[in-house]
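Lab notebook, bench 4. The sequencing result for the construct came back, and we need a structural model before the next group meeting so we can plan mutations. Quick request posted to the team channel:

Model the 3D structure of this chain.
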Amino acid sequence: VTPSDVAARMVGYLGPVGDFLTLEPSAGTGQLVRALLASGHSRYELTMIERHRTLALALEKHGPCWNRCFLEYAEEAKGRIEFPRIIMNPPFRDVRKHIAAALSLLGRGGHVEPATLVALVPITFEHAEAETLETLPDDTFATAKVRTKIIRFTR
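Done. Here's the predicted structure in token form:
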């Protein structure tokens, strides 16, 4: 679970609040979603994906949530929809696959501002387009014992 203060900073890194379609591809318990809504993002512009049924049902109170695998969703949605804003804490085990799938959906969607993806990833994750914004303290995910950082892509 993304700590609330980290989630709030991640939302801030997305850029200004506006009428941006925003994707949360591994919505989990909704920490990032709550941070988005608290900062003024509209629930009507939000698309959540969560493969665990119980979590997906709980997320419905915040807006539409697709109860399915994000990788499958991305494959079907590619070329059909662009998300100008994506915020994610992908499964660390498959971080490369999830980031690649999210990047395939990142686009301006008619906006002037650049499309932005903000992600919380293991410190070992590298990508030529990624800008490292923060290296998080070692105890941020103490139970997972994974050192993490926040990165951003802009296109």
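The chain is about 30% helix and 20% strand.
Will bring this to the meeting.
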